[in-house]
Amino acid sequence: MDALLVLLAATALGGCVFLPWMRRRRAVQQTRQGLVVAADPMAGYGFVPLDELDVRLPGPDQELDDALAAIRRTHDWRPAAELLKATGDDWELRWQRVQTLAGSAAFELAQEGTEDAARGDGRRSGGIWLRTWRLESPKDPGGAQTHAQFLVLQALRDPGSQDFRMILEEARTVCREAALLAPGSPIPYITELAVARGLNDRPADYEELWSKVAQRAPHHMGAHLAALPYWSEKWHGSRKEAEAFAERAAAGAPENSLLPALPLFAVYEHLPEANMVRSLYQSAVIERAVEGAHFALGQAPADHPMAPHVRHLLVWFLVRAERYAEAMEQLRLVDGHVGAVPWSYGRSPAAEYAAYRALAIAGWEQMGGTSAGFPPEGR
Fold this sequence. Notes:
about 375 residues, mainly alpha, 18 helices, about 60% helix, globular, disordered N terminus
């Protein structure tokens, strides 16, 4: 399970999370104390118990769950191919499904490697359904898209490896093959954003790649989240550049878009490493970003595939700002799935999420709230 959590953390938000970013675990020890604040945080609230939280996805997707179950049962690639074919050009949903399918294959391979090492026989059969998919249906764009994302995840397993660049170069080759198989799809180019970042592409080259995404899906929330890290100070830009990128996207967002929430992600990635002061989370900058996220969620369709990502990050900020009633409302809407930033930065996403959930409940009750009065009146 630990290997799965690392892989899921690596693939979160479009493959944009490289393993060195795991230093976001800075808040882990403090937040875990929240688990003892509410002895039974599920009592009366209808929340999902810790050991039943789904770490694979930020929100429910029954069709994807069914496909993954069929793949595990049969080791056949066809359920994955049929799922992506049915998804069609719903690019936000397709991007999330491609990531999860690739993550499943990568986890299987990692799990097999651990078992092989224990046996000492070197056999590797994990994720064979993906290899078979590519062999038996080489012109299927879904297979190529999943394969490219799989290779990105393989590289991320060990960024310090001498094979890191080689695997990313192979991923880039497969991205371009996938682009030829489905010329109108932004998916291969979104995957290539992570490749370009890892290979330290020049800003001009990255801009050219981004333009190919924007031509095909100019308001794709997942694509913007995948591109944002390149412009951050952790990679090839600065806080100013990242925030400018996010603000431009938010300002140019059409109706029913989640892009007004993008500045919240830019703020999160540039928080000071050691600052746990409450006033920081009640500052004008963060309040403005939080309100932008609330606005985006109010405008976007309730079933937007990326909405759970926004809700999870809102929970994190709202708890830290002691806005517990608002945090409880987001928890009500997102509880059960925890495969999202910020939880995926930690060693145990489920525990990270549960800690904040317990803090939210404790704060809600200290303000006079009860399980009988949940959800908050008027919500």
